[in-house]
């Protein structure tokens, strides 16, 4: 379910009295003259969006309002959509980082320690990775990304990884990662 579809559903489940209560509660955000134009939940939600009080990533204000008018069922639907979007975002990031690990395993080679230091991994952690995969550079690169993600959590992004590669002068690997795993053949080496 999309955010707009959910707002339509919430609007259709509001009684006239609940809508009036919501309008009253928005008095600090929506002027009385503008409130008079509101005859549906959708119009109210549009005004809240125009005033940056509501959006796909900004549902706290509406959640609070729905709680105030005793519509926890609608608030729960809104929060459920928030959780689904966060999970989707997390899965998307995880997929990108898994792809990055594959690209690194094919392109990083012996520079993995240098990259690990740039990513903020400790010497102890790097030694542990080295002991775990003493002869397999591809698995070492995958483990490096795995440990980095575990250590940095939400701060472990593809953008941070790309910058660390560039800081290590591993521009070809960064370009390959940035091009979806395909080497950039537009560069000419003279």
Structure description:
The protein is mainly α and 190 residues long. The protein has two domains: 68 residues, Death Domain, Fas (Orthogonal Bundle); 88 residues, Orthogonal Bundle (Death Domain, Fas), CATH 1.10.533.10. Helix content is 68%, strand content 0%. It contains eleven helices and no strands. The termini are far apart. The relative contact order is 0.08. This is Fas (tnfrsf6)-associated via death domain. One of its GO terms (molecular function) is death receptor binding. InterPro entries: DEATH-like_dom_sf, Death_dom, DED_dom, FADD. It holds the Pfam family DED.
Determine and state the CATH class of the largest domain: Mainly Alpha
Which percent band covers the strand fraction?
under 5%
The shape, in one word, is elongated
Gap from first CA to last CA = 53 Å
Stretches with pLDDT under 50, minimum 5 residues: 182-190
Q: Main sheet?
A: none
Helix-strand sequence = HHHHHHHHHHH
User: What is the rounded Rg?
Assistant: 25 Å
How would you name the CATH homologous superfamily of the largest domain? Death Domain, Fas
What helical percentage do the residues reach?
Answer: 55-70%
Total tally of structural domains: 2
CATH architecture of the largest domain: Orthogonal Bundle
SS-derived structural category: mainly alpha
Number of helices: 11
CATH third-tier fold name of the largest domain:
Death Domain, Fas
């Amino acid at each position: 379910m999309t955010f707009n579809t959910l707002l339509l559903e919430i609007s259709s489940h509001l009684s006239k009295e609940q809508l009036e209560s919501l309008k009253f509660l928005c008095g600090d955000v929506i002027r009385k003259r503008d409130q008079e134009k509101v005859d549906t939940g959708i119009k109210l939600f549009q005004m809240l969006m125009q005033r940056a009080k509501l959006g796909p990533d900004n549902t706290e204000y509406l959640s609070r309002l729905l709680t105030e008018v005793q519509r926890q069922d609608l608030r729960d639907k809104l929060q459920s959509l928030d959780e689904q979007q966060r999970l989707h975002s997390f899965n998307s990031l995880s997929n990108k980082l898994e792809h990055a690990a594959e690209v690194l395993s094919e392109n990083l080679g012996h520079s993995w320690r240098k990259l690990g230091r740039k990513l903020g991994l400790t010497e102890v952690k790097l030694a542990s990775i080295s002991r775990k995969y003493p002869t397999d550079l591809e698995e070492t690169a995958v483990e490096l990304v795995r440990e980095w993600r575990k250590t940095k959590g939400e701060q472990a992004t593809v953008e941070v990884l790309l910058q660390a590669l560039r800081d290590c002068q591993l521009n070809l690997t960064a370009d390959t990662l940035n091009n979806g795993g395909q080497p950039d053949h537009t560069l000419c080496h003279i």
